[in-house]
Amino acid sequence: xxxxxxxxxxxxxxxxxxxxxxxxxxxxxxxxxxxxxxxxxxxxxxxxxxxxxxxxxxxxxxxxxxxxxxxxxxxxxxxxxxxxxxxxxxxxxxxxxxxxxxxxxxxxxxxxxxxxxxxxxxxxxxxxxxxxxxxxxxxxxxxxxxxxxxxxxxxxxxxxxxxxxxxxxxxxxxx
Length: 175
Fold this sequence. Notes:
This protein is α/β, with parallel strands linked by helices.
């Protein structure tokens, strides 16, 4: 289990079904919904503003989730996959979104449902990723509507991570 810490007396609220690996940190005013997972070396730092993570979200290896005192909360909906090494800062990610590896989402940006932020993209402050679109680049721009295969991937990925979490739990019980 990762490290859970308070900040100024406020402890994270983590649903009992959440899976956290060693090396993950969850700090302060953070709520994490059912069947979500926080993977190796991820940092969820709700120290100066709240962070809300919905159900069946995967926060993968080396992801950083943070806020600053004057930017407002970081809100992540349900069924969101956040790829390895991504950085999300004081933004809103709605339901059924895939954030690619190494993507950076800046303050006050919004990612609408059924969207993909491509690996390595930079979503500028205040930018809105329209529902059903793929954005890519530095800075990110709308490339095209997502395909049916991408839509299925967005839908399947959260279920895959629930299964991976259970595999890790099972292996730990057998050890």
